Amino acid sequence: MRNTARLGIALTLALATAGCSTAGGGGSAAHTRPGAAPGAGPGGSVTSCGRQVSLAGPPRRTVALDQSSTETLLELGLQDRMAGTANLKTKIPAPYEAAYAKIPVIAPKIATGEQLRAATPDFVVAGSADLYTADRAGTREELDALKVPTFVSAVDCPQHNPPGRTPFELLFSDYENLGTLFGAEERAGKLAADQRAAVARAGAATSGVRSGDRPTVVYLYSVFNGMPYVAGRTGLPSEMSRIVGAENAFDDVQEDWPEVSWEEVARRDPDFIVIGDLSERGRPGDSAAEKRATMKAHPVISRLAAVRDDKILEVPGIELDPSVRSVHALELLAQGMKDLGHAR
Predict the structure, then answer these.
(1) Fewer Cβ in 10 A, N or C end of the chain?
(2) Fe/B12 periplasmic-binding domain spans which residues (predicted)?
(3) Same domain for 172 and 213?
(4) Better-predicted residue by pLDDT, 16 or 295
């Protein structure tokens, strides 16, 4: 991100600093348990979104139903165990391109049950529970009946998680649980450790924020039909704010990305604004430039100090939802707060 308060760190570099490694190198033999032949040994057992997932051996034909799951598996070096991906929302980062190119795309958008079954999976992974519905890939119960075990990110299952677990810790538990099932514990453990360290660095970088002087922030994810969608209390940005000593201005709304009015954004008068750049998605109002133009042209929003004085940060929009990339957005947020003078 550039700065007036734009940051401009390349995603490839961010993935490296967050513990990302090139997924294209090495085959499955490098990621099995020590001393085990590729694909040998028990697959292990974990609990995923209230259901026990027990595998007789590491999966060989996994389908990832969304981009976040796909990139997690690629980061764990499991491309040789993947039989399909779906629902790509933005470009695959450069470190994953070669590995991703070898995996069949079973559906460009949300996969149907027919598309999933045609891939003959032995394991299915999804970042959100709503991909497992009768009119989509099929319910988890339906897939269980077909002897196809399923996994859902813990971040999307608040009703089944222990109290007090943060979204980042839930995300890291996904890495560790998938490592158990695939016999890739060492690589999963390193990824979780590297990203825990990145979270700690972001918090340390903004430790100069006084508890009684926390800046407020609005996260503008998208603009649809002229209306803003912002981060509510249950989304990852609220946790990101807490880590860096800021306060999400819409923390009282119990939704991930509620639709609000521009007048309500103005009423909350944030100290700064984070724009999610969704340029690659390509819908009207998705790009950071369009969001900036909309705010500057709005008769009320344009008068906010955050807009008038360009106290605006841009981050890749996809990184504001939980994924292997999210620590990058956290690092951008921490650096942006320092650049804006909110942290020493």
Answers:
(1) C
(2) 61-344
(3) no
(4) 295
Model-level pTM? 0.85
Q: Would you say residue 107 lies in a domain? A: yes
Ramachandran bin of 259, using left for φ above 0, alpha for ψ from -120 to 50, beta for the remaining angles? beta
Residue 28 has pLDDT above 90, yes or no: no
Token look-up 């450069």 returns 94
Q: How many CB atoms lie within 10 A of CB 133?
A: 14
Cβ-count burial of 89 within 10 angstroms (0-12 exposed, 13-18 middle, 19+ buried)? middle
The whole-number pLDDT of residue 36 equals 32
122 SS3 class: coil
Sheet holding 123-126, edge to edge: 105-107, 82-86, 62-64, 123-126, 150-152
Report the DSSP pairing between strands 105-107 and 62-64.
Answer: unpaired
For residues 325 and 92, what is the distance between their CA atoms, to the nearest angstrom? Answer: 11
Q: Using the predicted structure, report yes or no on whether residue 316 has a pLDDT greater than 60.
A: yes
Q: Mean pLDDT, to the nearest integer, of 334-339?
A: 95
| Structure-block tokens of residue 303 | 């008068």
CA atoms within 13 A of residue 146's CA, in its CB half-sphere? 18
Residue 120 φ/ψ region, left for φ over 0, alpha for ψ in the -120 to 50 degree band, beta for the rest: left
pLDDT at 5 (0 to 100): 38
Range of the structural domain that residue 162 is part of: 20-198
**Tens digits of per-residue pLDDT, 209-238?**
755 689 999 999 999 889 999 999 999 999
**Which helix (DSSP H) or strand (DSSP E) does residue 239 occupy?**
helix 236-244
Q: Would you say 151 and 167 are in contact if contact means Cβ atoms under 8 Å apart? A: no
